[in-house]
Write a structure and sequence with these properties.
The complex is a heterodimer of chains A (272) and B (305).
Chain A lengths: L5 H11 L23 E7 L3 E4 L6 E11 L8 E8 L2 E12 L2 E14 L2 E5 L3 H4 L2 H7 L20 H13 L3 E5 L3 E3 L3 E8 L6 E11 L2 E14 L1 H12 L1 H27 L1
Parallel strand pairs in A: 2-12, 7-8
Antiparallel strand pairs in A: 1-3, 3-10, 4-7, 4-11, 5-6, 9-10, 11-12
Helix pairs in contact in A: 5-6
Chain B lengths: L1 E4 L4 E4 H18 L4 H10 L4 H25 L5 H28 L2 H33 L18 E4 L4 E4 L1 H17 L4 H11 L4 H27 L4 H24 L2 H24 L6 E5 L4
Antiparallel strand pairs in B: 1-2, 3-4
The chains are: A alpha+beta (272), B mainly alpha (305).
Chain lengths: 272, 305
C-alpha cells in the first residue's frame, strides 16, 4: 500500500467500520509528521480538527483512526497502540478539609502549577502489557503523569493524598479518562479510537498523541491538534466580557432593567 | 434543551434555569427579598462555578427588583428619601465587602465564611421573625391591641434628624445608613441582595410601617445589586449574560405573580412564611457544616494556595 493512497483508504475504513461513532466525516486527515523512517510508522487522521462551541453545544465525539505502515515484514513482539487526548492546562489548588471545633474547614492546600483540564487515554490493551514504565515516564502517558510540577513550596508533609484526590475528582467528572481496550486494533494494522468530549469543555488546543509500542517500547508516535473555539454569539459575548468589561457589565444591567420593566408593563396591560 | 453558557463554560438545561428564575422571582415579589440567598446556592448545585453564580445572581436580582420596585411604586409603597439613605450606606458597605470577599477567596475560606454567615444571620433573623409573627397572629385572634409600634429609644436621640414622610418617621439618618452599610457588606460576601436582613431591620430597628418596607428595601437592593454586578463584570469578568437572561425571563414573570399574591396575603402570614423559608435554608447549610463531607478534598482552578 503506497503512502499516496493511504489517506483515501483510511477514510474508506473509517466510513465502513461498524460505527458507534457519530461523526466519521470526510475531512482530510492530517498529514503524518516526518520522522526518519522507523520500521513501523503510524499514519492517522481525526474525524474533525476543529470544534466550534455554539450556544447549543453539549459535547462532541471525536474519532481518531489510522494504520500502521510497514516497509518491511512485520517485526516480532507484542504490538500496542495508545491514543491520548489532552486539553489545555491550568493551575489548580487542591484543598483539604478537617474537622475543627465541630465544623468542617479547609485547613491545608497544595498547588499544582499545571494540570490538563481534560485528559483521556485509550489503549489497545491494558497499559501494563503494552507500555514499559520507563517509557511511560518519558512520554508522560498515564493519567498520574499528566500532572506537572507543584506550585510554590509544599506546606504539607505528604502531597500524595492531594494529587490522588485531584485525579479521583476529575475522573469522577469524566474529565480524566483511562479506557484500556478502547482502541480497536485489527490485524495489527488498522486502528480506531472514539473519544467523547464533555459539554463543559475549556476553549483551547487539544493535543492528540498516538503511540505505537512493541514489547512496551515506543517505536513511533504521531501528534496532531484539535482546535476548540467558541463561535458566533458565544465568541462575541466572551470577547466583549474580556476586552470591554465595563460595556459588557452595562449591557447586562440594561438587559436586566429592560426585562424587568417590560414584564411590569406586560402585566399591567394584561390586567386591563 | 441544553444551552452552553459562554462565561460559566458549562452546558445546562435552559428550562431548569427558567424554573429557578421563576421561583426566585416569585419570592422577590412576595416578600421583598432579592432572592439571592436561594439562587446562589441553587446555581452552585446545578454546577455553575461559584464566582459566576454570585455575579450573575446579582444581575438577576437587578431585573426582579426593577419589576418589583415598579409594582410597589404604583402602590405608593416606596419611601424614596429613606431608600436613598439606605443606598448610600449600602454602596459603602458593598465596596468594603468585595474587598473582604477577595481576601477570603485568596485564603481559601470563602465557602466557610459564606456558609457561616448564612447560618448565623438567616438562623437568628428567621427565628426572631417567626416568634414576632406568631405573637402578632395570636394577638389578632384574641383581639388584643397590638403594642405601640415604635418606642422612643436611643435611636431617637441621635443627630441629623430628617422627616421621612412616607414612613411617618422623624429620625436621624445614622441608623438607616448603618443598616444599609451592614446589608451592603453581607450582600457582597454572601452574594445576596440582603433583603432578608434589611426587611426585619427596617421593621424592628427603624420602626418603619410594614406597607413601605418591601418597596423601600427593593429600591435599595436594585441599586446595590446593580453596583455589585458592574464591579464583578469589571474586576473578574464573571457575569454570564446568557445565564442571567434565562434567570431573568423566569424571574420577572415570577416577581409579578408574587407581588399580586403579596397584596392579598396578610402581613403576619407573609412574615411567618418568610421566616420559615429563611430558617429552612439556614438549617440545611448548618447541617452541611456539621456532617462529614463525602469528599474531603476540593479543587479550585487557579493558583495561589
Amino acid at each position: 500500500m503506497s503512502g499516496r493512497y493511504l489517506p483515501a483508504a483510511l477514510i474508506a475504513l473509517a466510513l465502513a467500520w461498524p460505527a458507534t461513532a457519530q461523526q466519521a466525516t470526510t475531512e482530510q486527515p492530517n498529514e503524518p509528521e516526518l520522522i526518519t523512517a522507523p520500521p513501523e510508522e503510524v499514519v492517522a487522521g481525526l474525524s474533525q480538527d476543529n470544534i466550534g462551541i455554539t450556544t447549543s453545544f453539549d459535547g462532541s465525539a471525536i474519532l481518531i483512526y489510522g494504520a500502521v505502515k510497514r516497509d518491511a515484514p512485520e517485526p516480532t513482539g507484542h504490538l500496542g497502540v495508545i491514543v491520548t487526548l489532552e486539553g489545555p492546562s491550568g493551575a489548580v489548588t487542591i484543598r483539604h478539609k478537617t474537622r475543627e471545633m465541630g465544623i468542617w474547614v479547609n485547613t491545608s492546600s497544595v498547588g499544582v502549577a499545571s494540570a490538563p483540564t481534560y485528559y483521556a487515554v485509550a489503549s489497545s490493551a491494558p497499559l501494563a502489557e503494552i507500555l514499559d514504565p520507563a517509557q511511560d515516564v518519558i512520554q508522560r502517558i498515564s493519567i498520574p503523569l499528566a500532572l506537572r510540577s507543584f506550585a510554590g513550596p509544599i506546606e504539607v508533609e505528604d502531597a500524595r493524598p492531594f494529587t490522588e484526590a485531584m485525579l479521583r475528582i476529575r475522573e469522577a467528572e469524566n474529565l480524566y479518562q483511562l479506557d484500556e481496550g478502547a482502541v480497536h486494533l485489527v490485524e495489527d494494522t488498522l486502528f480506531r479510537a472514539d473519544f467523547t468530549l464533555p459539554a463543559n469543555l475549556t476553549e483551547g488546543d487539544y493535543k492528540t498523541r498516538i503511540f505505537l509500542t512493541r514489547d512496551g517500547q515506543v517505536v513511533d508516535q504521531y501528534r496532531a491538534a484539535i482546535y476548540v473555539r467558541r463561535v458566533g454569539l458565544e465568541r462575541w459575548l466572551y470577547m466583549l466580557s474580556q476586552n470591554y468589561a465595563a460595556i459588557y457589565g452595562l449591557m447586562s444591567l440594561a438587559l436586566a432593567v429592560i426585562a424587568g420593566w417590560a414584564a411590569a408593563e406586560a402585566f399591567k396591560f394584561l390586567r386591563r | 434543551m441544553q444551552i452552553y453558557l459562554p462565561i460559566a463554560e458549562v452546558s445546562v438545561n435552559a428550562f431548569v434555569l427558567l424554573g429557578l428564575g421563576g421561583i426566585v422571582g416569585l419570592l422577590s415579589g412576595l416578600f421583598g427579598v432579592g432572592g439571592g440567598f436561594l439562587i446562589t446556592p441553587l446555581l452552585f448545585f446545578i454546577g455553575i462555578p461559584p464566582t459566576v453564580a454570585v455575579a450573575t445572581g446579582a444581575n438577576q436580582v437587578v431585573a426582579s427588583s426593577v419589576s418589583g420596585v415598579l409594582a410597589q411604586l404604583k402602590r405608593k409603597a416606596v419611601d424614596i428619601p429613606m431608600g436613598i439613605v439606605l443606598l448610600i450606606g449600602g454602596l459603602i458597605g458593598s465596596a468594603a465587602g468585595i474587598w473582604v470577599f477577595n481576601l477570603l477567596t485568596k485564603l481559601g475560606q470563602i465557602d466557610l465564611a459564606v456558609q457561616l454567615s448564612y447560618v448565623v444571620f438567616l438562623g437568628s433573623i428567621g427565628l426572631l421573625m417567626l416568634q414576632e409573627s406568631l405573637r402578632a397572629m395570636r394577638r389578632a385572634k384574641t383581639g388584643a391591641k397590638p403594642g405601640k409600634r415604635h418606642q422612643h429609644n436611643w435611636v431617637h436621640k441621635l443627630p441629623f434628624k430628617v422627616k421621612f414622610r412616607a414612613s411617618g418617621l422623624y429620625i436621624s439618618v445614622i441608623p438607616p445608613a448603618l443598616v444599609g452599610m451592614v446589608v451592603g457588606v453581607l450582600a457582597a460576601i454572601m452574594g445576596v441582595g440582603g433583603g432578608f436582613i434589611m426587611v426585619p431591620a427596617m421593621i424592628y430597628l427603624l420602626g418603619m410601617p410594614t406597607k413601605v418596607v418591601i418597596g423601600t428595601s427593593l429600591f435599595q437592593i436594585l441599586f446595590v445589586s446593580a453596583f455589585t454586578t458592574l464591579m464583578h463584570a469589571i474586576t473578574n469578568q464573571s457575569v454570564d449574560v446568557m445565564l442571567a437572561l434565562l434567570l431573568i425571563v423566569g424571574g420577572v414573570i415570577g416577581a409579578q405573580i408574587g407581588s399580586q399574591l403579596g397584596g392579598r396575603l396578610k402581613a403576619e402570614q407573609l412574615r411567618s412564611l418568610l421566616a420559615l423559608l429563611v430558617i429552612l435554608v439556614a438549617f440545611k447549610l448548618g447541617l452541611d457544616l456539621l456532617i462529614r463531607p463525602a469528599e474531603l478534598f476540593s479543587l479550585h482552578v487557579g493558583g495561589g494556595a
